[in-house]
Design goal:
The protein is mainly alpha-helical. It is built from 3 helices and no strands.
Length: about 80
């Protein structure tokens, strides 16, 4: 879709990853955006390679579960319960 604006695949991947990281600023900590940038690079690269949003979405789900499994979920969860 954005090939006319960003003809270079590497630029599309980088811009997508930056947008993904910025979307995680809402968690208001310094860990979520940099880790999301890394994940965004991986997910955008997967999409660029496969042209499948499903593949990138499944990858996002699996890595999201892994983040919670290793104990970093606290940084990616905006719970409604405080205290």
């Amino acid at each position: 879709r954005y090939a006319s604006l960003l003809p270079n695949a590497a630029a599309r991947i980088l811009v997508s990853a930056i947008a993904f990281a910025l979307a995680h600023i809402v968690f208001m900590n310094w860990i979520a955006p940099p880790l999301s940038l890394l994940g965004g690079l991986l997910f955008a690269w997967t999409y660029e390679r496969t042209r499948s949003a499903l593949a990138a979405g499944v990858q996002h789900a699996l890595f999201g579960q892994w983040i919670f499994t290793v104990g970093l979920g606290w940084y990616f969860y905006a719970g409604s319960v405080t205290g």
